[in-house]
Structures are given as structure tokens and as C-alpha cells.
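Regression test case RT-17, inverse folding.

Input:
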């Protein structure tokens, strides 16, 4: 039985994660961690330090905020607790720094996106990138998302850049009118990324490729947070046999 604590248990993603863990036959929800009061069938602690001092668990899942997640996982990793992190807005350097606090046998797993469809979208984009001279990423999220671009968009741009080995020749920010700065989006490793924030979306992303006489669009949509749960549970089940820093759900998918 895998003993799990959920950091950010009062949030919308945290609530979905706690419910998924409670429904899993091979997992036990030990506690929630969140400074906001809320009802849960297990104890709720106001901080990771308090939870570590009070409870015993194998894995901590963190869906909190970018300004607190690094402190949370550093404490857990130093105590020998594997971490599954879905909080976005973290740089590669920050993740590497946090992983240095881990005990040798402990794993820090970070996924920009936990949906299997989004992982496949990124893998398909990586495969297509060498064959198209132009590529742009457009991501759509709910209006309350704290970071832009999304972690998925940043990861997609990184994969495209690493796969294609050349730079786009399309006009960039230098063509923007004075009254319309930002129209070409953020340039992430040579790939324009556009972030839409609006009510009505949960999480969607499309990657638009273009070459002479043709275009290819790869799109993924999430309409419900339940779509993330199989990936979260896969991460929880997988970290116990791994160590070090692992980025991307594709590392655990057959």
C-alpha cells in the first residue's frame, strides 16, 4: 500500500487528487496539507513541515503555487519522501536545485501535464518538427491560471526546438506595430507561444506547423480535471522504483 500526502488539498486539483487516491485500491491517503481549512476524511496539516513531523507517508503530491512549491518539495525530499509535482511555473534550474535536497534513493517527478493525450500531443509535435520550417504553440486555459505560458506550452516549445535543429524564418517581434506589442507571442527557444486566458476553458493546446503549401495542427483538449488523474496515479505508482529528477509523464508510459 502506497501512503500518500497531498499538498494543496483544498484546491480544485487537490480535491480531485485526494478523491482519486481514496478510490485507488493500492493507495492510502494519509493526510492533506493546506493552510486553508477544509473537510477531509483524514487529518489536514497547515504546512509540509507539520505533516512530516506528525505523519508517515511515502509520496507527497504537490498541486500548490509556484511561490511555495520549491520549499514544500525540498522539505519532503530531504525527509526521504518521493514527490509528484503538478504545480507549473517551475524552471529547469529550479527543479534541479530542489532535487539536490533529495536523499540518494528519493525521486522528484515533475510533469508539465498529467493527461496522456497531452503527452502524446507533445510527442507527435516532436516527431513533426523536423519536417516543417514553421511552428507555433497556442494554449488556452481558465482565467484563474497563475502562470503564462503554461508548463505544457514551454515543454512543447523545448521539444520542438531540440528536435528540429533550425530556427524559424517567419517574421517575429521586429514586425510588431507599436500599438500591438506582443502580437507575435513569447519567443520560447525560437518557437512563438501564445497564451489565452478566458472563462470557458480548462486546458487546451494546439501546435500549428507550416511548410510550403501545407499546414498541420495537433490539438489536445481537457474539459475536466478528471483527465489528469490517471497520470497522477501513474506517477505515484512509479516514483518508488526511481531516483533523482524525472521530467515528463512519457518516462512512465509504455
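Golden output:
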Amino acid at each position: 500500500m502506497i501512503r500518500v500526502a497531498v499538498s494543496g488539498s483544498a484546491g480544485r486539483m487537490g480535491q480531485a487528487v485526494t478523491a482519486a487516491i481514496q478510490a485507488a485500491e493500492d493507495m492510502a491517503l494519509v493526510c492533506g496539507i493546506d493552510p486553508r481549512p477544509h473537510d477531509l476524511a483524514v487529518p489536514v496539516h497547515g504546512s509540509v513541515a507539520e505533516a512530516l513531523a506528525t505523519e508517515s507517508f511515502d509520496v507527497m503530491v504537490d498541486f500548490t503555487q509556484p511561490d511555495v512549491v520549491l520549499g514544500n518539495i525540498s522539505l519532503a525530499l530531504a525527509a526521504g519522501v518521493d514527490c509528484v509535482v503538478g504545480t507549473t511555473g517551475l524552471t529547469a534550474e529550479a527543479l534541479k536545485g530542489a532535487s539536490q535536497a533529495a536523499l540518494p534513493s528519493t525521486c522528484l517527478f515533475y510533469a508539465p501535464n498529467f493527461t496522456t493525450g497531452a503527452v502524446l500531443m507533445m510527442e507527435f509535435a516532436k516527431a513533426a518538427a523536423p519536417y516543417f520550417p514553421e511552428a507555433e504553440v497556442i494554449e488556452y486555459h481558465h482565467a484563474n491560471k497563475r502562470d503564462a505560458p503554461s508548463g505544457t506550452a514551454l515543454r512543447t516549445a523545448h521539444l520542438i526546438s531540440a528536435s528540429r535543429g533550425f530556427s524559424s524564418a517567419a517574421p517575429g517581434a521586429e514586425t510588431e506595430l507599436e500599438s500591438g506589442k506582443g502580437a507575435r507571442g513569447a519567443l520560447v527557444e525560437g518557437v512563438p507561444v501564445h497564451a489565452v486566458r478566458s472563462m470557458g476553458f480548462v486546458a487546451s493546446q494546439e501546435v500549428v506547423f507550416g511548410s510550403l503549401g501545407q499546414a498541420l495542427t495537433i490539438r489536445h483538449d481537457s474539459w475536466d480535471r478528471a483527465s489528469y488523474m490517471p497520470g497522477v496515479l501513474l506517477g505515484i505508482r512509479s516514483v518508488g522504483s526511481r531516483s533523482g529528477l524525472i521530467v515528463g509523464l512519457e518516462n512512465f508510459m509504455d
